[in-house]
Amino acid sequence: MNRKILFIILITVSVGSVAYAAQTVSDRIEVDNDDGNLTVNIDDVFGYQIEPIGDLDSDGVIDLAVISFEDNSEATDLGAIIILFMNADGTVKGTNEIIMDESAAGLNNAGCLVGDGTNRDTRGLEQLAFVGDLDGDGEPTIALGANSNNHDVDGAGGNGVVADTGAVYMLELNADGTVDNCVLITEDNGGFAPADGVYIQDGIANFGWPVIATDLNNDGRNELIVGAGTESNDNTALWPLFLNTDGTVASHPAVPITGATIGVDAGSEYIDDGASVSGTKIVVSNVSDGDNGGSVFIVNLSAAGAFVSTTEIAGSTITGVIASDTFGSGVAPLGDMDNDGVNDILVGNISGDDTNDNSGEAYILYLNADDTLKDSQKISNESENTRVGATPFAVDDFLGEGMALWRDAGGNAIIAIGATGDDTGGALAGAIHLFYVARASSAVTATSTGGSSDHEHMSKPTFGIDEKTFKKKVDYGLTINEVAFEVKDNYWTPIPMQNMTVGESQNFTSKIFAPHQLHVLEILFGIPDVGKAHQAEASVALTFDYTGEFEKVTWNDEFQLINQTSLSFSHKDAFCLPEDTVEQCTQVSVELEFKESPISKVLALKAIDGKRRSSVLYFNDGVTVFGESLNPPFTKEIISKIKYKGLQTIERIDKAQDIWITLDKEEPVLLYQQNDHGSFNPIEYRVFEKEPDAMTTNIDRLHSEFDSLREFEILRAVKQFDSTQIVSVLEASWNYDYPIPTNRTELIQHIIESEKVRTSHVMDFYYKNHKKIIQNFED
């Protein structure tokens, strides 16, 4: 294998009043047919798309998925995906080829065959995106765009097979690079179901170009944005697809984002490539912008995938790009390369003539916060005419198609750029060039807690696993009262219910890896369900400054669940894993006491780093607190609008439903419910329970007889109509004689007559004493 090395002098660029250092390319390694563990042949067009897929084989080195555009290994031109298992020195340790032939043999799943049992791709593969571990089983998924897939768009032969309808394959990978599961997404399969006539009557043409994976709604799981051309309008449109854990489409908008909305000219062919800049920000390219030699668009979307804004960066604004170029042939996110707090991008130009005709080149675009261009830097071995000992790119190497960035164990950035025309393995065999780039310093640099194997792809802090490699990054991310818990997912981790007691000290310790310094750690209690941290009943947030020192504590405790005077905390640098040699994590311990129990049980941890990237981790079983409340009754004064007008004092008796009861002496007692706006609405009159009748004795009906019932009623009648007692109360003499009943009918008649006599005497008493009662009341 030939190892080709490049050294470029560091150049300082000044833009307005902002000064920063350009990137230094310290080394370049070519991955091609000369590598003894990689075979690429004539017309394979290897390097058309490149995606880092994390450390698939768990050897500590990031591995790659690369499209071999027209791979001929199966005597077809349908293309293949080559999984490259990489060594730390940039050489290839081993490969696995995912073959795309008519039987879809390399897919290992019949779910990716079209209706007639074939694959129906008619030419090479185009687009690739790393989706991540959707179902949390440790097996990552890659999305493969095959815009040349042909199939019957409405089934049953209705319209016949439509050429270039397009498809997306969702491929879940095993650790050896083979496909464990496959899901096919077309306009009528895998959950994607656009309405007829949204674009064209006979289906969607070229669905699958481009394919972009990005976390739009910040739920820790990537969504797909898939391009689709049309027959009636050459402009590509973009479909945001929200995914299920099995790779199928859970939902999508009724209509896509059109190329015209983004700003692509009507006369241009399509959006050529795209990538995620961060979250709701993506970049798409248009190489067919002839006036400018191509262009890229920075597109901002909402969490629901709706269009928000766009900013175009024309190739003509880049020094070195001419009208006949194809600026935008490839795009990739770079993260914040110049440490100004704004993520930057890499853009390819396969028609660039930097060293030879169509030798190709790439440009780092340094962006401002408003998505406009701050400056650019060319990446090519002859760009500054300072090449030392490296082989120049040849005629028609076409450097600048596929491209990607990741970081090695030492924190150095590695930019991979495909040269699809490289002829080391034969004409158009293809190659990949690995540019080793040291990040530049800047006037303002956020203090970091330590190194990371993949800084720029770590979109958020983590309490557990690496978001890119899906390997354990942090050992025991949460400890409660000396019981430690492994975090196996960055969104939700089940733990046994933790029982606590009111008034006793409780300890919560978390360990967080934050690539750009921990800024806020928040512990949230009483969350009703996973995903609803904003409804927490109480929380405490500790804020640290950009040197890592404690700054302030913030409470959200409307219901006074926590004894704030009991709070104590500590923080320190810590090893993320026992085998670490550098303390890259921040460990924060918080002790506090509960004054009463939260209603809901879910507990959550939230971390925000110095780049304002946040991560929320839920523990669904959470905590339950036992014991009587130490809080005094919670009361308020409100204006009563019913029954009794004016000011009333009320007390909360049900925190869950926010139910309040009147404390004033007037009857009846009223109940109120407080709404989300703080207003109190009466909901009902208080209904008191009736006291049980002391004269009543329960009788076991299963064993009773008439004789026992008769004896009971006789005794009850004697007690109820004792003449001596009645005379003393009513000041009248009366009696009632009735023979002892001998059957049920006589007994009932006896009771009825007794009640009549008693009632008449009671009424006589009140009539006789009416004037006396009134007089006593007036006196």
Notable traits:
779 residues; mainly beta; Immunoglobulin-like; five-stranded antiparallel β-sheet
Descriptive account of the structure:
- With 779 residues, the chain is mainly beta.
- Among the domains are: 169 residues, Immunoglobulins (Immunoglobulin-like, Sandwich), CATH 2.60.40; 51 residues; 71 residues.
- The strands form twelve sheets. It has a five-stranded antiparallel beta sheet with strand order 30-29-32-37-36, with no helix packed on it. It has a five-stranded antiparallel beta sheet with strand order 35-34-33-38-39, with no helix packed on it. A five-stranded antiparallel beta sheet has the order 41-42-43-44-45, with no helix packed on it.
- A hairpin with an 8-residue loop joins β22 and β23.
- α2 packs parallel to α4.
- The longest helix is centred in the C-terminal third of the chain and has 25 residues.
- It starts with 11 loop residues before the first strand and ends with a helix.
- 44% of the residues are buried.
